[in-house]
Specification:
The protein has about 425 residues and is an alpha/beta fold. The chain contains 13 helices and 22 strands. The strands form 5 sheets. It has a 7-stranded mixed β-sheet with strand order 9-8-7-10-11-14-13, sandwiched between helices. A 7-stranded mixed β-sheet has the order 18-16-15-19-20-21-22.
Length: about 425
């Protein structure tokens, strides 16, 4: 169904379809790419679950022709997505180092000091807040709707409010804890439909010179690196800096600074302050906005080319994996990641191609991958290594390949799926 054919009434019990842009209110959309019906990225099944009861939802991307927000068309009820959640912040050294960097940047560049209050949206099990406590000596408070993860954070000594962050929550936090010097949302702001209410809450909770800092997938990196598997139902928005700048200005905030990051396939750490505060816009922000304009990211053609590349890469990856299996090779998945759900489902790779997936997350072990129903094993439960691993957690590729050097030397290889399928072995790389 075309985006333009949908009306606000064309919803079911847990889905709302986007008709107006959540950033600028426009109704003029470019249809970019459709992946059809895909199950929820973190909707791992118990082995005893009825597969027939598994639900799938439209996964389509559109681009606002007014502000160039990239948005999903279908917004799944957050109660379905987040009240019990299987994603736990990665314990990889790459991510631990990144979280320390975020805390140190806030301290060194923005003057965050001991005793200042840091409030984190989508704080998960508290790792990032622990980094702020260690690096800065900050007071910390997490806000996360996943009750199972909030309990884990509390047990680790990180005070956590098991709720969604909005203007009402912000008022309650300010009343109990005081104003925040930093409100942080790492890879959570792109999950939010009602961004206006969140920004209203942020403005109310911030100190006069406080900063609202978000880490989001960068739309430029999504397109350039062909990170299409980072598109799933939790990620409602994919932002340019120019889009965020427009959003902030509509809600009484000023874009202050930006830092490009390699994590999660390419992200940006963007800070905004109150428009009536002391912070001014940095040259880094102006440069990226100009680069987006000059790079064609404000026009249809860039996104049409992206869709073409996505279709070609999916076809090539499917042919590669099925070709290896036809030759008698055993293939498995490495890292039962959320992005892996997208990749496997849109490429049609399931239990006939992949014997199992390994993952270090206890909440996923012993379950089946969404839609494709591949068993998820703990790494220690693998009794016989496959010939090839499809690297579903490709954003940690270099760390994983270094860790698995013995497997590469003694067995087969890793298939790195994007930006184009590549086979990595101990000796060579081949496309």
């Amino acid at each position: 169904m075309s985006t333009h054919d949908r009306t606000p009434e064309s919803t079911d019990d847990v889905v709302r379809y986007v008709t107006t842009c959540r950033v600028c209110g426009s109704e003029e959309w470019q249809e970019v790419v459709s992946f059809g019906e895909v199950p929820l990225a973190n909707g791992f099944l118990e082995v005893t679950d009825s597969v027939a009861q598994e639900r799938a939802y439209p996964l389509e991307v559109i681009s606002c022709r007014e502000c160039r927000l990239l948005s999903l068309t279908a917004v799944v009820d957050p109660q379905v997505l987040y009240r019990t959640y299987s994603y736990v912040t990665s314990d990889s050294e790459t991510m631990a180092r990144h979280m320390r960097t975020v805390a140190e940047l806030a301290r060194d560049r923005y003057g965050l000091a001991e005793g200042d209050l840091v409030v984190e949206l989508g704080s998960n099990t508290g790792d990032q807040l622990l980094a702020f406590r260690e690096a800065v000596g900050a007071r910390v408070l997490g806000v996360d709707p996943a009750r199972n993860l909030a309990r884990i954070a509390e047990d680790r000594g990180v005070p956590t409010l098991p709720d969604y962050f909005d203007s009402a929550t912000a008022r309650a936090v300010a009343g109990e804890h005081g104003k925040a010097s930093l409100i942080l949302g790492r890879h959570v702001f792109a999950h939010i439909d009602d961004v206006a209410d969140v920004l209203a809450g942020a403005r109310e909770l911030l100190t006069e010179d406080g900063l609202f800092t978000i880490e989001v997938p960068y739309a430029v990196d999504l397109v350039e690196r062909l990170a299409f598997d980072t598109i799933y139902h939790e990620h409602l928005s994919y932002f340019l800096i120019s889009t965020l700048d427009r959003l902030f200005s509509r809600h009484g905030l000023r874009t202050v600074d930006v830092e490009r990051l390699a994590v999660h396939g390419g992200s940006v750490l963007v800070s905004a302050g109150r428009a009536d505060g002391r912070w001014q816009t940095s040259e880094r922000v102006r440069e990226l906005i100009a680069a987006e304009r000059d790079g064609g990211y404000l026009s249809d053609a860039r996104y049409e080319a992206f869709a073409t590349r996505v279709r070609r890469t999916c076809a090539d990856l499917t042919a590669l994996v099925r070709g290896l299996v036809a030759q008698g090779h055993r293939v498995a998945g490495y890292g039962a990641s959320a992005k892996g759900t997208t990749l496997l489902n849109i490429c049609g790779l399931g239990s006939e191609e992949l014997e199992f997936c390994t993952d270090t997350t206890p909440q996923k072990q012993g379950r089946l991958t969404p839609g494709t129903h591949i068993p998820v094993l703990a790494p220690g439960d693998v009794t016989e290594q496959p010939d090839y691993y499809l690297l579903l957690a490709w954003n940690y590729a270099e760390e994983i390949l270094a860790k698995e050097s013995r497997f590469l030397a003694e067995h087969g290889g890793f298939i790195v799926p994007v930006p184009e399928p590549t086979v990595r072995t101990g000796a060579v790389s081949a496309k």
